[in-house]
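Hi team, as promised in this morning's meeting, here are the two structures we talked about. I've kept the exact order from the run log so nobody has to guess. The first one is mostly here for context; it's the second one we should focus on when we meet again. Sequence first, then the predicted structure tokens.
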Amino acid sequence: MTAPSSPLAAHGTAAALGQLHRSPQRPVEHAAMSRRDGGWRLDRVPLEDELRICLAYLQETPERFERAAVAWHARWSCAATQLTLADSLVALGAVQALAGPGSVPAADALRTLSTRHGLDEVVAVLAEWVGTVPEPQIAHPES
């Protein structure tokens, strides 16, 4: 027996694989983690609402942010029109940077990418969130 010519050959064509995820009988439904009762629960929510949940985790329960952000980035990548690998990687880095001192530039980068890929609701949520981020305190050297 010979080895398949590509990893997909062992499982059929790429089109057939796509049908596993986009079957009309079972539409793909994305899930978001909600904050009910302090635990994880799966809900179906719009992408922009899931982003709000992620951003709320930054303030309320930062230990949950990373897991929620990974899930959100996966959904963002699926929702973005004509997404390239490069844009997906930049978006992932920007999502990660939302939790750090460069959160505003990260949000700006994510807004630019979301605009490029037709995700206007995400742009609006990020614009609203940036307005709530406190400005960093600049240490002034003593004379």
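And here is the second protein, the one for discussion:
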Amino acid sequence: MPTGAGAVPPAVSSAAAMPAVPSPVLPGVAVGDEQSTAELWNRYAGRVRAMGMRLSGFDSGFADDLVQETFVKLWRGAGGFDAARGTEATFVFTVARRAAVDQWRRGRRSSTDRPLSRLPEIAGAVTTGSGSPEDHLDAVAAGWAVAEVLDTLSGAQREVIDLAYYAQLTQTEIAERLGIPLGTVKTRTHAAMKALRAALVTNGVTT
């Protein structure tokens, strides 16, 4: 391999630069593997509880019940996971959202909770109207996922997203508003949307 000042560094593939996606453990859970079962809990229990806290207005009892019910369903239904149809996270959080709806239907809301048809609209999630509770819950979960990843973006990336989606400006108008090259706006928007898509997959909102 050539060295020295004139040497060309080896190219780094984009695949190598991306974080590794953990292998699914649900197939192991389906056959009773204890290590896989423990890993499933470690990966998702905290995140399912956090979702339950938010959906219930921070009712810890509801959140704890949601974790228990979700994992019972996962342990019993792990064999239904098909990696060709979606990610493991999507499977887990689909089960969790259905379990949350079941809890509401059994009347486990605290006195301060609101029905699903009146859950807050966050990040554009439509939670009112004639849709089913599952539709409303999915919309709220997606809205929270969007809001969370927006908070993790750099100030520059968040700025272009806000101007594009809330101020409804074109990329050319954003460049003029901020006094930066159009190419910079495109680069920041691309990076922000890539982070958003990755976060939605990680949180099981999309595949």
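Starting points for discussion:
The CA atoms of residues 46 and 203 lie 12 Å apart.
Residues 5-19, 108-129 have pLDDT under 50 and may be disordered.
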